[in-house]
Design the sequence.
């Protein structure tokens, strides 16, 4: 099986590589279109800021490649946000795979960013098979997609939001499965086993 | 519900874990990789590795250690100690660290925070602040009172020196005072792009008498980024206090975990029974 992690400039994505190594999965870390298209599984990671990440994807032509992929694709954190239509973070037009707009958490009594372990609910994704009803996973983000028809796991911080999305061959997680303990490991294993 | 984080801190010297009282009298507490993986297994929410003898020579040792930790630990971990450039951060993140922590280098050149946040994202930049209370004399206060003794009532005047308690940022492992006030510096760090503040009270550190609750509460309530409280943990109640009165988002401790005075599972069960949001 060939797994590709899409290489781009969205901050520190090394954790994803180590997570795959911990579960004994080999991978290719590349931004080459041919390599990505011929992969069995594609992971689209990301941390950092949406508009610079999106600019880089455009420069590399990956904005056109990613939405047309047909194998299972897993976007995480900013990767998930970029798979949506639009992000309020620097008013970024994104890939539009999920017809959803990513919004900043309303400021109020709670701190923004949302940092730490929070639990999921309403699990409907094949990626959460084998997990308990309300597993804890690790989040770091200031922007989130609202709950919508493609939501397959929800979480709540200030407001309810989409922790996971799923549409056709596209899967997405707002949290960092790669550093979310055993639960995160199960999610990655489930994705690789699709 | 977002949970309060319990973070064991592993002080590293020459690739080994050490922890001393008030940063002196170091004692060996084991192998960092093994200890880190054990804590993760026991339910630690994150780990911090602090290289306390960071020199150019042992930089490579630290990067190698970080790589080993990343290969074995499946929760977020932070690396700090002697980090002063984009190159340092790049090497540690590439080796698998999830976050880095800067302290003296940020005080020396605050623009470093902006540069790191821009290059790597705020989420992986922790600004560590070591703070100490310093009493500054600001004049005298005179009291007059009537004192009644065996020989009748007398009017007595006393003159006390008026002292103002200031929380002063210290660098170099807490040895060197700076001009910076703690709250102002924490605010500046946040504005420049820090993702979290690791606040260590040097007065409380090593005492096991509890976290600096007032200071932690002040800093945490004035910032929008999370505050990790550090220094003084000696009992489970201290963690309960720092998450309630201290308004901390995370509590960090070292020796009480390393010497098994408090087990992480026992601590987390206790905190949950106290009604705090805790990941178990």
Sequence:
């Amino acid at each position: 099986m060939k797994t590709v992690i899409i290489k781009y400039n969205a901050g520190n994505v090394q954790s994803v590589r180590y997570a795959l190594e911990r579960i004994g999965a080999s991978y290719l870390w590349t931004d080459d279109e041919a390599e990505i298209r011929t992969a069995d599984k594609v992971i689209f990671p990301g941390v950092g800021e949406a508009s610079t990440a999106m600019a880089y994807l455009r420069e590399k032509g990956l904005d056109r490649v990613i939405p047309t992929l047909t194998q299972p694709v897993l976007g995480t954190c900013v990767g998930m946000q970029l798979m949506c239509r639009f992000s309020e973070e620097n008013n970024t037009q994104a890939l539009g795979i999920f017809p959803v707009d990513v919004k900043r958490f309303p400021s109020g009594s709670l701190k923004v960013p949302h940092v730490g372990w929070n639990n999921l609910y309403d699990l409907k994704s094949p990626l959460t098979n084998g997990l308990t009803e309300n597993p804890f996973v690790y989040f770091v983000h200031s922007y989130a997609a609202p709950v919508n028809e493609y939501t397959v796991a929800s979480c709540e911080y200030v407001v309810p939001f989409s922790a996971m999305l799923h549409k056709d061959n596209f899967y997405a997680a707002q949290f960092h499965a790669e550093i979310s303990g055993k639960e995160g490991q199960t999610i990655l294993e489930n994705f690789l086993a699709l | 519900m977002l949970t309060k984080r319990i973070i064991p801190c592993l002080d590293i010297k020459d690739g080994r874990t050490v922890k001393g009282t008030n940063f002196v009298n170091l004692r060996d507490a084991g192998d960092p990789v093994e200890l880190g993986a054990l804590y993760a297994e026991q339910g630690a929410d994150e780990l911090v590795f602090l290289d306390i003898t960071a020199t150019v020579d042992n930089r490579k040792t630290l990067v190698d250690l970080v790589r080993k930790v990343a290969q074995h630990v499946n929760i977020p971990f932070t690396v700090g100690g002697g980090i002063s450039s984009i190159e340092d951060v790049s090497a540690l993140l590439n080796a698998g660290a999830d976050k880095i922590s800067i302290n003296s280098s940020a005080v020396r050149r605050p623009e470093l925070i902006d540069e790191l946040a821009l290059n790597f994202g705020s989420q992986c930049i922790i600004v560590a602040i070591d703070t100490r209370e310093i009493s500054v004399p600001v004049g005298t206060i005179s009291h007059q009172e009537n004192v009644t003794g065996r020989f009748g009532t007398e009017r007595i005047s006393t003159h006390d020196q008026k002292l103002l308690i200031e929380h002063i940022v210290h660098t170099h492992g807490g040895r060197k005072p700076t001009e910076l006030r703690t709250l102002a510096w924490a605010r500046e760090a946040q504005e420049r792009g820090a993702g979290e503040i690791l606040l260590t009270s040097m007065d409380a550190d090593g005492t096991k008498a509890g976290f600096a609750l007032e200071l932690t509460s002040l800093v945490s309530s004035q910032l929008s980024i999370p505050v990790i409280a550090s220094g003084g943990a000696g009992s489970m109640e201290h963690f309960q206090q720092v998450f309630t009165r201290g308004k901390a988002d995370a509590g960090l401790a070292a020796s009480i975990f390393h010497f098994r005075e408090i087990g992480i599972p026992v601590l987390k069960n206790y905190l949950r029974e106290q009604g705090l949001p805790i990941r178990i």
Remarks:
- Confidence is low (pLDDT under 50) at residues 20-26 of chain B.
